[in-house]
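Supplementary Note 2. Why include the ligand at all?

Several targets in our set were suspected to adopt different conformations when bound, so apo predictions alone were not considered sufficient. For every target with a known small-molecule partner we therefore ran a joint prediction. The input for dinuclear copper ion is given below.
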Amino acid sequence: MTEKTGEGTLQSVLHPAGWDATVISQFAWVMFGAGTLIFVAVMALLALSLRRHERPVRPALWIAGAGVAFPIVVLSALLVWSTWRSGQLAPQSSSQALTISITAKMWWWDVRYRDPESGREIATANEIHVPVGQSVYLGLNAADVIHSLWVPSLAGKRDMIPGRVTGLTIRADKPGIYRGQCAEYCGAQHARMALQVIALPPDEFKAWLARQAQPAVAPASSLQERGRAVFLEQRCQSCHTIRGVAEKAHLGPDLTHVGNRKQIGAGVLRTHEGTLAGWIADPQAVKPGVFMPAASGLDGESLRALAAYLAHLE
Ligand code: CUA
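The joint prediction is reproduced in C-alpha coordinate form.
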Protein backbone atom coordinates (compact mmCIF):
# COMPACT_ATOMS: atom_id res chain seq x y z
CA MET A 1 0.00 0.00 0.00
CA THR A 2 1.32 3.43 -0.87
CA GLU A 3 -0.57 5.52 1.64
CA LYS A 4 1.38 8.67 0.80
CA THR A 5 0.62 8.81 -2.89
CA GLY A 6 -2.98 7.86 -2.31
CA GLU A 7 -2.86 5.30 -5.07
CA GLY A 8 -3.36 2.34 -2.78
CA THR A 9 -3.34 -1.20 -4.01
CA LEU A 10 -3.93 -2.03 -7.63
CA GLN A 11 -7.42 -3.00 -8.61
CA SER A 12 -7.16 -6.78 -8.73
CA VAL A 13 -9.46 -9.78 -8.70
CA LEU A 14 -6.43 -11.92 -7.88
CA HIS A 15 -5.81 -10.38 -4.46
CA PRO A 16 -8.96 -10.82 -2.38
CA ALA A 17 -8.93 -8.88 0.88
CA GLY A 18 -12.49 -9.49 2.06
CA TRP A 19 -14.87 -12.37 2.61
CA ASP A 20 -16.97 -12.20 -0.55
CA ALA A 21 -13.95 -11.59 -2.75
CA THR A 22 -12.28 -14.67 -1.25
CA VAL A 23 -15.30 -16.86 -2.05
CA ILE A 24 -15.56 -15.42 -5.58
CA SER A 25 -11.87 -15.92 -6.29
CA GLN A 26 -12.16 -19.52 -5.06
CA PHE A 27 -15.00 -20.07 -7.56
CA ALA A 28 -12.84 -18.70 -10.34
CA TRP A 29 -9.80 -20.84 -9.48
CA VAL A 30 -11.81 -24.07 -9.07
CA MET A 31 -13.64 -23.51 -12.39
CA PHE A 32 -10.37 -22.55 -14.10
CA GLY A 33 -8.54 -25.56 -12.61
CA ALA A 34 -11.30 -28.04 -13.52
CA GLY A 35 -11.57 -26.57 -17.03
CA THR A 36 -7.79 -26.80 -17.52
CA LEU A 37 -7.64 -30.44 -16.37
CA ILE A 38 -10.48 -31.44 -18.70
CA PHE A 39 -8.95 -29.53 -21.61
CA VAL A 40 -5.56 -31.21 -21.11
CA ALA A 41 -7.21 -34.65 -20.83
CA VAL A 42 -9.24 -34.13 -24.03
CA MET A 43 -6.14 -32.95 -25.92
CA ALA A 44 -4.18 -35.99 -24.69
CA LEU A 45 -6.95 -38.30 -25.88
CA LEU A 46 -7.04 -36.51 -29.22
CA ALA A 47 -3.28 -36.92 -29.68
CA LEU A 48 -3.56 -40.57 -28.72
CA SER A 49 -6.39 -41.21 -31.19
CA LEU A 50 -4.40 -39.62 -34.02
CA ARG A 51 -1.41 -41.88 -33.34
CA ARG A 52 -3.18 -45.20 -32.80
CA HIS A 53 -5.47 -46.80 -35.33
CA GLU A 54 -6.99 -49.72 -33.42
CA ARG A 55 -9.99 -48.86 -31.21
CA PRO A 56 -9.64 -50.26 -27.69
CA VAL A 57 -13.06 -48.85 -26.69
CA ARG A 58 -16.23 -49.04 -28.75
CA PRO A 59 -17.37 -45.60 -30.16
CA ALA A 60 -20.83 -45.92 -28.57
CA LEU A 61 -19.22 -46.43 -25.17
CA TRP A 62 -17.06 -43.31 -25.68
CA ILE A 63 -20.11 -41.23 -26.52
CA ALA A 64 -22.11 -42.49 -23.56
CA GLY A 65 -19.19 -42.29 -21.14
CA ALA A 66 -17.15 -39.24 -22.09
CA GLY A 67 -19.87 -37.35 -23.96
CA VAL A 68 -22.85 -37.84 -21.64
CA ALA A 69 -21.99 -39.35 -18.25
CA PHE A 70 -18.76 -37.40 -17.67
CA PRO A 71 -20.19 -33.88 -18.24
CA ILE A 72 -23.29 -34.74 -16.17
CA VAL A 73 -21.17 -35.85 -13.22
CA VAL A 74 -18.65 -33.00 -13.42
CA LEU A 75 -21.16 -30.18 -14.03
CA SER A 76 -23.52 -31.49 -11.33
CA ALA A 77 -20.66 -31.67 -8.83
CA LEU A 78 -19.58 -28.10 -9.65
CA LEU A 79 -23.20 -26.92 -9.44
CA VAL A 80 -23.76 -28.49 -6.02
CA TRP A 81 -20.46 -27.20 -4.69
CA SER A 82 -20.94 -23.64 -6.02
CA THR A 83 -24.54 -23.46 -4.77
CA TRP A 84 -23.40 -24.55 -1.31
CA ARG A 85 -20.50 -22.07 -1.35
CA SER A 86 -22.74 -19.22 -2.60
CA GLY A 87 -24.81 -19.66 0.53
CA GLN A 88 -21.74 -18.55 2.46
CA LEU A 89 -21.49 -15.19 0.73
CA ALA A 90 -22.21 -12.27 3.05
CA PRO A 91 -25.95 -11.79 3.61
CA GLN A 92 -27.18 -8.60 1.90
CA SER A 93 -28.82 -6.98 4.86
CA SER A 94 -29.14 -3.36 5.89
CA SER A 95 -29.12 -4.48 9.52
CA GLN A 96 -25.31 -4.18 9.55
CA ALA A 97 -23.96 -1.85 12.22
CA LEU A 98 -22.76 0.61 9.62
CA THR A 99 -24.75 1.63 6.56
CA ILE A 100 -23.31 3.96 3.95
CA SER A 101 -25.45 5.38 1.20
CA ILE A 102 -23.83 5.71 -2.21
CA THR A 103 -25.36 7.42 -5.21
CA ALA A 104 -23.65 7.02 -8.57
CA LYS A 105 -23.72 10.09 -10.78
CA MET A 106 -22.13 10.89 -14.14
CA TRP A 107 -19.18 10.46 -13.32
CA TRP A 108 -18.53 10.35 -9.62
CA TRP A 109 -19.74 8.73 -6.40
CA ASP A 110 -21.78 10.61 -3.79
CA VAL A 111 -21.01 8.94 -0.45
CA ARG A 112 -23.09 9.62 2.66
CA TYR A 113 -22.73 8.61 6.30
CA ARG A 114 -24.94 9.17 9.27
CA ASP A 115 -23.20 10.97 12.12
CA PRO A 116 -23.61 8.63 15.15
CA GLU A 117 -23.56 11.66 17.48
CA SER A 118 -25.99 14.10 15.90
CA GLY A 119 -27.77 11.84 13.41
CA ARG A 120 -26.99 14.35 10.68
CA GLU A 121 -25.91 13.31 7.23
CA ILE A 122 -22.22 13.60 6.34
CA ALA A 123 -21.49 13.82 2.64
CA THR A 124 -18.22 13.07 0.92
CA ALA A 125 -17.27 11.78 -2.51
CA ASN A 126 -15.38 9.03 -4.31
CA GLU A 127 -13.84 7.58 -1.15
CA ILE A 128 -15.55 5.07 1.08
CA HIS A 129 -13.94 4.82 4.49
CA VAL A 130 -14.78 1.63 6.37
CA PRO A 131 -13.62 0.03 9.61
CA VAL A 132 -11.50 -3.10 9.13
CA GLY A 133 -13.02 -6.48 9.96
CA GLN A 134 -16.58 -5.17 10.13
CA SER A 135 -19.38 -5.90 7.68
CA VAL A 136 -20.63 -2.68 6.14
CA TYR A 137 -23.82 -2.33 4.13
CA LEU A 138 -23.66 -0.07 1.11
CA GLY A 139 -27.09 1.20 0.09
CA LEU A 140 -26.81 1.87 -3.65
CA ASN A 141 -28.73 4.12 -5.99
CA ALA A 142 -28.08 6.03 -9.20
CA ALA A 143 -29.10 9.57 -10.07
CA ASP A 144 -29.07 9.46 -13.86
CA VAL A 145 -28.16 6.29 -15.77
CA ILE A 146 -27.21 2.75 -14.74
CA HIS A 147 -23.81 2.44 -13.09
CA SER A 148 -22.25 -0.50 -11.27
CA LEU A 149 -20.10 -0.62 -8.16
CA TRP A 150 -17.13 -2.96 -8.31
CA VAL A 151 -14.29 -3.19 -5.83
CA PRO A 152 -12.82 -6.54 -6.89
CA SER A 153 -10.59 -7.00 -3.83
CA LEU A 154 -13.63 -6.85 -1.57
CA ALA A 155 -16.77 -8.12 -3.31
CA GLY A 156 -18.61 -8.77 -6.54
CA LYS A 157 -20.34 -6.20 -8.72
CA ARG A 158 -23.68 -4.61 -7.95
CA ASP A 159 -25.64 -2.58 -10.47
CA MET A 160 -26.85 0.86 -9.44
CA ILE A 161 -30.15 1.65 -11.09
CA PRO A 162 -32.01 4.99 -11.08
CA GLY A 163 -35.12 4.82 -8.92
CA ARG A 164 -34.19 1.56 -7.28
CA VAL A 165 -32.22 0.98 -4.10
CA THR A 166 -29.93 -2.03 -4.17
CA GLY A 167 -27.32 -3.00 -1.65
CA LEU A 168 -24.00 -4.68 -1.16
CA THR A 169 -22.33 -5.90 2.00
CA ILE A 170 -18.57 -5.55 2.04
CA ARG A 171 -15.95 -6.42 4.61
CA ALA A 172 -12.28 -5.55 4.40
CA ASP A 173 -10.12 -7.94 6.41
CA LYS A 174 -6.93 -5.89 6.39
CA PRO A 175 -6.29 -2.18 6.41
CA GLY A 176 -5.55 -0.73 3.01
CA ILE A 177 -6.79 1.25 0.05
CA TYR A 178 -8.78 -0.79 -2.43
CA ARG A 179 -9.47 0.63 -5.84
CA GLY A 180 -12.89 0.24 -7.39
CA GLN A 181 -14.37 1.20 -10.70
CA CYS A 182 -17.75 1.77 -12.29
CA ALA A 183 -18.45 -1.49 -14.11
CA GLU A 184 -21.38 -0.51 -16.32
CA TYR A 185 -20.90 1.76 -19.32
CA CYS A 186 -22.44 5.10 -18.35
CA GLY A 187 -21.23 7.62 -20.88
CA ALA A 188 -18.11 9.43 -22.07
CA GLN A 189 -16.22 9.31 -18.76
CA HIS A 190 -17.23 5.81 -17.64
CA ALA A 191 -13.57 4.78 -17.63
CA ARG A 192 -12.72 7.67 -15.31
CA MET A 193 -15.30 6.84 -12.68
CA ALA A 194 -13.09 5.28 -10.05
CA LEU A 195 -13.37 5.12 -6.30
CA GLN A 196 -11.32 3.99 -3.36
CA VAL A 197 -12.37 2.00 -0.35
CA ILE A 198 -10.12 3.02 2.51
CA ALA A 199 -10.16 0.42 5.28
CA LEU A 200 -9.00 1.82 8.61
CA PRO A 201 -8.57 0.28 12.07
CA PRO A 202 -11.87 0.93 13.97
CA ASP A 203 -10.37 3.69 16.17
CA GLU A 204 -8.99 5.58 13.18
CA PHE A 205 -12.30 5.16 11.36
CA LYS A 206 -14.16 6.67 14.32
CA ALA A 207 -11.76 9.59 14.42
CA TRP A 208 -12.13 10.10 10.66
CA LEU A 209 -15.92 10.09 10.89
CA ALA A 210 -15.90 12.53 13.82
CA ARG A 211 -13.72 14.88 11.81
CA GLN A 212 -15.95 14.59 8.74
CA ALA A 213 -18.93 15.52 10.90
CA GLN A 214 -17.34 18.88 11.67
CA PRO A 215 -18.11 21.88 9.46
CA ALA A 216 -15.32 23.20 7.25
CA VAL A 217 -12.29 24.72 8.96
CA ALA A 218 -11.86 28.48 8.80
CA PRO A 219 -9.29 29.96 6.39
CA ALA A 220 -5.83 30.10 7.97
CA SER A 221 -4.30 32.87 5.86
CA SER A 222 -5.35 35.93 3.94
CA LEU A 223 -4.88 34.00 0.70
CA GLN A 224 -7.31 31.32 1.89
CA GLU A 225 -9.64 34.05 3.13
CA ARG A 226 -9.62 35.46 -0.39
CA GLY A 227 -10.23 31.91 -1.71
CA ARG A 228 -13.39 31.54 0.33
CA ALA A 229 -14.65 34.88 -1.02
CA VAL A 230 -13.87 33.72 -4.58
CA PHE A 231 -15.85 30.51 -3.96
CA LEU A 232 -18.91 32.62 -3.15
CA GLU A 233 -18.33 35.29 -5.84
CA GLN A 234 -18.00 32.64 -8.53
CA ARG A 235 -21.23 31.04 -7.30
CA CYS A 236 -19.54 27.67 -6.76
CA GLN A 237 -22.20 27.15 -4.08
CA SER A 238 -24.84 26.68 -6.80
CA CYS A 239 -23.46 23.14 -7.17
CA HIS A 240 -21.17 22.49 -4.20
CA THR A 241 -21.73 22.47 -0.47
CA ILE A 242 -19.11 23.53 2.04
CA ARG A 243 -20.72 22.98 5.43
CA GLY A 244 -20.42 26.14 7.49
CA VAL A 245 -20.05 28.31 4.38
CA ALA A 246 -22.88 27.45 1.97
CA GLU A 247 -24.87 24.24 2.19
CA LYS A 248 -27.82 24.27 -0.16
CA ALA A 249 -26.51 22.57 -3.30
CA HIS A 250 -25.91 18.89 -3.98
CA LEU A 251 -25.28 18.81 -7.72
CA GLY A 252 -21.53 18.43 -7.41
CA PRO A 253 -19.41 16.74 -4.73
CA ASP A 254 -19.56 18.11 -1.18
CA LEU A 255 -16.32 20.04 -0.61
CA THR A 256 -16.44 20.44 3.19
CA HIS A 257 -13.36 18.21 3.60
CA VAL A 258 -12.13 18.01 0.01
CA GLY A 259 -8.52 18.63 1.07
CA ASN A 260 -8.68 15.40 3.07
CA ARG A 261 -9.53 13.33 0.02
CA LYS A 262 -6.68 11.63 -1.78
CA GLN A 263 -7.98 12.28 -5.26
CA ILE A 264 -10.24 14.65 -7.18
CA GLY A 265 -12.38 14.03 -10.26
CA ALA A 266 -13.21 10.43 -9.21
CA GLY A 267 -9.65 9.17 -9.33
CA VAL A 268 -8.37 11.46 -12.09
CA LEU A 269 -5.85 13.59 -10.15
CA ARG A 270 -4.18 13.52 -6.75
CA THR A 271 -5.45 16.28 -4.49
CA HIS A 272 -3.19 19.28 -3.97
CA GLU A 273 -3.27 22.98 -4.71
CA GLY A 274 -1.83 22.61 -8.19
CA THR A 275 -4.24 19.94 -9.39
CA LEU A 276 -7.20 21.73 -7.77
CA ALA A 277 -6.29 24.94 -9.62
CA GLY A 278 -5.89 23.05 -12.91
CA TRP A 279 -9.19 21.26 -12.46
CA ILE A 280 -11.10 24.46 -11.62
CA ALA A 281 -9.52 26.37 -14.51
CA ASP A 282 -10.51 23.79 -17.12
CA PRO A 283 -12.22 20.58 -15.99
CA GLN A 284 -13.20 19.86 -19.61
CA ALA A 285 -9.54 19.49 -20.54
CA VAL A 286 -9.03 16.92 -17.79
CA LYS A 287 -12.31 15.02 -18.08
CA PRO A 288 -14.17 16.00 -21.28
CA GLY A 289 -17.94 16.01 -20.88
CA VAL A 290 -17.90 16.47 -17.11
CA PHE A 291 -20.73 18.72 -15.89
CA MET A 292 -18.46 21.24 -14.22
CA PRO A 293 -17.98 24.33 -16.38
CA ALA A 294 -14.59 25.99 -16.79
CA ALA A 295 -13.95 28.99 -14.53
CA SER A 296 -13.57 31.38 -17.42
CA GLY A 297 -12.85 34.94 -16.44
CA LEU A 298 -11.14 33.94 -13.20
CA ASP A 299 -7.79 35.75 -12.88
CA GLY A 300 -4.68 33.84 -11.84
CA GLU A 301 -4.50 35.26 -8.34
CA SER A 302 -8.15 34.39 -7.56
CA LEU A 303 -7.67 30.89 -8.96
CA ARG A 304 -4.62 30.39 -6.77
CA ALA A 305 -6.51 31.66 -3.72
CA LEU A 306 -9.48 29.38 -4.39
CA ALA A 307 -7.21 26.34 -4.83
CA ALA A 308 -5.30 27.20 -1.64
CA TYR A 309 -8.56 27.49 0.30
CA LEU A 310 -9.96 24.16 -0.97
CA ALA A 311 -6.68 22.30 -0.34
CA HIS A 312 -6.81 23.64 3.22
CA LEU A 313 -10.25 22.06 3.84
CA GLU A 314 -8.99 18.87 5.46
CU1 CUA B 1 -20.71 5.00 -14.07
CU2 CUA B 1 -19.81 3.64 -15.78
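The first helix runs from residue 19 to 51. The helical segments are 19-51, 59-86, 202-213, 222-233, 273-281, 283-286, 300-312. Comparable summaries for the other entries are listed in the accompanying table.
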